Design the sequence.
């Protein structure tokens, strides 16, 4: 009888333990995530992770510091600024939709909207503002949208990411969990997850590229990438949102990417950004 | 001599006529067999193509479609249109296999989480 009880208790413990493992809350996830990187890169201060690979590779950091002397994104930022204040046909502008932008707002995006029961990213909010004012939305992921978003990011430099996941709201938690699953799930023909590159292997090379730690990746987006710059033309060619990067990563592992602002990418951005809570915004960052 | 020549000529003509008729018969049979084989291949392609489309849909429904399936299906259709069923079938089979593997990947990854990475 005793052994039967013991088996039952053990089974109950296992049953309870398994979901606990999968259902660690956002706060526990964040704590474990941060500790992992601090242990993996001892001596790198937490805020330094906002600089991506430049926090962990001295040679690349020196190159980046030189690029920052004459930042390649400056012209594009001016275009983003002009777009931000440009009057719509109705006399309003994007600045009216984001009255606190000059004080810094990027750190609060993406946020959970309890009325709409969905995650709102900064880029989604920008295009919704345009539509609400009778303007055509920008094309997603790059160009003017990325430049405006980068300008808002630039105004938010130094503000610490403060994404909120209301733990008493099951819908918000479901979005967070969806993003978390996406981040850790292997996908595509190459069978790679986001975590395979950016949790298990940061600091190692994949072909010629140095893999960055996932901690701090979102701080410098929209980013200005030399790769994107080379593929396009004009001052905005190098700009791209974090969802442009997700699309590229998915393609690289031979998975079919999702549409920009899809539930999949918004939930991923929600989780991914939450994991960098407390780090300073430094968008737009120059990356290779 | 004249009669001999006449007989000889008639025999040659007859044998040529018979030979031609024989050739025509073999060619026709070959053409018919070829056309039958093409029809069988076309039917096989249609079946595999449908299965590949279904496998792709199933993988996409759970968000695990692989990047190149659409490309393979498009190329398969183009090859079939040109009558190159061997190529078309090969591509459709590849698309089908990738669709099935994408769904299997979903099954293996649906509970993925930080625990897989020691976090």
Sequence:
């Amino acid at each position: 009888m005793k052994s039967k009880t013991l088996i039952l208790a053990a089974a109950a413990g296992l049953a309870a333990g398994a979901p606990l493992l999968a259902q660690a809350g956002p706060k526990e996830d964040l704590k474990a995530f941060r500790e992992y990187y601090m242990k993996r890169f001892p001596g790198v201060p937490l805020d330094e992770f906002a600089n991506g690979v430049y926090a962990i590779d001295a040679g690349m950091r020196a190159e980046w510091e030189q690029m920052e002397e004459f930042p390649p994104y400056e012209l594009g930022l001016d275009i983003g600024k002009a777009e931000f204040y440009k009057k719509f046909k109705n006399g309003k502008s994007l600045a009216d939709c984001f009255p606190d932008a000059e004080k810094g707002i990027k750190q609060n995006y993406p946020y959970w909207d309890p009325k709409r029961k969905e995650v709102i990213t900064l880029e989604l909010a920008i295009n919704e503002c345009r539509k609400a004012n009778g303007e055509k939305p920008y094309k997603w992921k790059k160009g003017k949208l990325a430049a405006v978003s980068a300008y808002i990011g630039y105004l938010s430099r130094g503000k610490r990411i403060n994404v909120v996941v209301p733990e008493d709201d099951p819908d918000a938690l479901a979005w967070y969990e969806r993003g978390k699953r996406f981040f850790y799930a292997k996908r595509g023909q190459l069978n790679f997850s986001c975590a395979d590159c950016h949790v298990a292997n940061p600091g190692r090379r994949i072909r010629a590229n140095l893999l960055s730690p996932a901690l701090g990746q979102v701080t410098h987006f929209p980013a200005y990438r030399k790769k994107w710059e080379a593929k396009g033309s004009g001052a905005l060619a190098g700009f791209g949102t974090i969802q442009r990067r997700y699309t590229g990563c998915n393609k690289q592992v031979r998975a079919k990417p999702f549409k920009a602002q899809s539930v999949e990418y918004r939930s991923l951005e929600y989780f991914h950004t939450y994991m960098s809570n407390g780090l300073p915004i430094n968008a737009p960052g120059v990356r290779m | 001599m004249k009669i001999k020549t006449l007989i000889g000529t008639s025999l040659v003509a007859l044998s040529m006529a018979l030979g031609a008729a024989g050739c025509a018969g073999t060619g026709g049979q070959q053409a018919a067999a070829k056309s039958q084989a093409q029809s069988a291949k076309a039917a096989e392609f249609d079946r595999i193509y449908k299965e590949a489309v279904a496998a792709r849909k199933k993988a996409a429904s759970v968000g695990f479609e692989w990047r190149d399936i659409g490309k393979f299906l498009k190329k398969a259709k183009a090859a079939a249109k040109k009558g190159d069923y061997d190529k078309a079938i090969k591509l459709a089979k590849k698309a089908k296999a990738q669709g099935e593997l994408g769904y299997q990947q979903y099954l293996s990854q649906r509970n993925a989480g930080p625990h897989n990475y020691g976090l």
Summary: Residues 1-21 of chain A have pLDDT under 50 and may be disordered.
